[in-house]
């Protein structure tokens, strides 16, 4: 697909919006965490996320699937994502370089891939293996002072 | 001469990697049973479960309006970003392209932080960030 054709696709612009939103989220969280402790950042974060969830729920006519496994995984996601976000605010609060911390924590797919291999018995592709090598290199470089 | 040492931000960052790594797996599992939008709604409900443990007892109004606004806006942007990712996939974007593309969000931080946060990165950190971004793209493929 040519670049021009890609630029005309809706999915590209939604992806771009996602990158901008998440980039700005990280910068704002860093700025907030210089004053607000990590637990309180996540406490307030919930109230910021709530309106988006309400809009989504309204758009769906307040209808949600009633699959217990799906709901349990979704709730687990929220709890773990919340703990992770509080920890991210803690990392930012420690005074480290924001770009380095954001890039280091964005490597979480490394854990997902390793868990998918051990729990879901998925196969590690060559690209994944190369990704793990780059992740290891990044960690070593971040530890060099 | 450069030497290896563990920076103080490493431990909370390790917790982020671990929790969000499991989230990645649970996301995959949850969308096997419910729609991605429902999963996002339940995720926010999961945030609510944490509130009793997160409440410090101190009124949030003791913090500056600026910091409070930054936190709330950051949450809106984070959730909006997740919605945009889901919509990109619903609009015909292949997960194998959309997920690695959106994983490049640290680039926004790298580009904006010198101007906004007045932070600079050393050449060593720059190479590290490049390795991290390459790793994220490869792992998300």
Could you explain how this protein is built, in words?
The complex is a heterodimer of chains A (145) and B (141). Chain A is mostly helical. Chain A folds into two domains: 87 residues, no CATH class; 39 residues, no CATH class. Chain A is 78% helix and 0% strand. Chain A is built from seven helices and no strands. In chain A, helix 3 runs antiparallel to helix 4. The radius of gyration of chain A is 18 Å and the shape is globular. The N and C termini of chain A lie far apart (43 Å). Chain B has 141 residues and is mainly α. Chain B folds into two domains: 60 residues, no CATH class; 48 residues, no CATH class. In chain B, 75% of the residues lie in helices and 0% in strands. Chain B is globular and about 50 Å long. The N and C termini of chain B lie far apart (36 Å). Classes of the chains: A mainly alpha (145), B mainly alpha (141). Chains A and B meet through helix 2, helix 3, helix 4, helix 5 and helix 6 of A and helix 1, helix 2, helix 3, helix 4 and helix 5 of B.
Outline the secondary-structure elements.
The complex is a heterodimer of chains A (145) and B (141).
Chain A: H1 3-7, H2 10-33, H3 38-59, H4 68-93, H5 98-105, H6 109-118, H7 126-143
Helix pairs in contact in A: 2-4, 3-4
Chain B: H1 10-33, H2 36-54, H3 65-90, H4 95-102, H5 106-116, H6 123-140
Helix pairs in contact in B: 4-6
Descriptive labels:
heterodimer; A: 145 residues; mainly alpha; 2 domains; 7 helices; globular; B: 141 residues; 6 helices; 75% helix; 0% strand
Q: Share of helix among residues of chain B?
A: over 70%
Overall morphology of chain A: globular
How would you describe the shape of chain B?
globular
* Number of distinct helices of chain A: 7
Whole-number count of domains of chain B: 2
Average pLDDT over all residues of chain A: 92
Provide the helix percentage of chain A.
Answer: over 70%
Rg of chain B, rounded, reads 18 Å
Structural class label of chain B: mainly alpha
Cα(first) to Cα(last) distance of chain A is 43 Å
**Assembly classification:** heterodimer
Largest interface: A-B, 113 and 112 residues
Q: What's the rounded overall pLDDT mean of chain B?
A: 91
């Amino acid at each position: 697909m040519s670049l021009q054709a890609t630029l005309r696709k809706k999915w590209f612009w939604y992806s771009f919006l996602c990158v901008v939103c998440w980039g700005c989220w990280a910068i704002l969280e860093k700025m907030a965490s210089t004053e607000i402790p990590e637990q309180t950042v996540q406490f307030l974060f919930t109230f910021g996320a709530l309106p988006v969830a309400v809009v989504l729920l309204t758009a769906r006519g307040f209808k949600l699937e009633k699959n217990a496994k799906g709901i349990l995984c979704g709730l687990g996601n929220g709890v773990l994502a919340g703990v992770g976000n509080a920890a991210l605010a803690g990392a930012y609060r420690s005074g480290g370089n924001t770009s380095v911390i954001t890039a280091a924590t964005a490597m979480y797919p490394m854990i997902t891939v390793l868990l998918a291999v051990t729990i879901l018995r998925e196969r590690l592709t060559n690209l994944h293996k190369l990704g793990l090598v780059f992740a290891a290199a990044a960690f070593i470089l971040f530890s060099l002072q | 001469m450069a030497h290896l040492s563990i920076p103080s931000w490493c431990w909370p960052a390790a917790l982020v990697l671990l929790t969000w790594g499991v989230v990645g797996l649970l996301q995959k599992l949850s969308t096997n049973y419910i729609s991605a939008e429902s999963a996002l709604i339940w995720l926010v409900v999961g945030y609510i479960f944490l509130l009793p443990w997160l409440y410090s007892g101190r009124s949030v109004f003791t913090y500056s309006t600026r910091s409070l606004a930054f936190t709330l806006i950051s949450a809106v942007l984070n959730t909006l970003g997740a919605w945009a990712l889901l919509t990109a996939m619903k609009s015909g974007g292949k997960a194998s392209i959309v997920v690695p593309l959106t994983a490049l969000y640290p680039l926004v931080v790298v580009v904006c932080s010198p101007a906004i946060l007045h932070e600079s990165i050393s050449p060593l950190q720059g190479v590290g960030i490049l390795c991290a971004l390459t790793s994220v793209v490869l792992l998300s493929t």
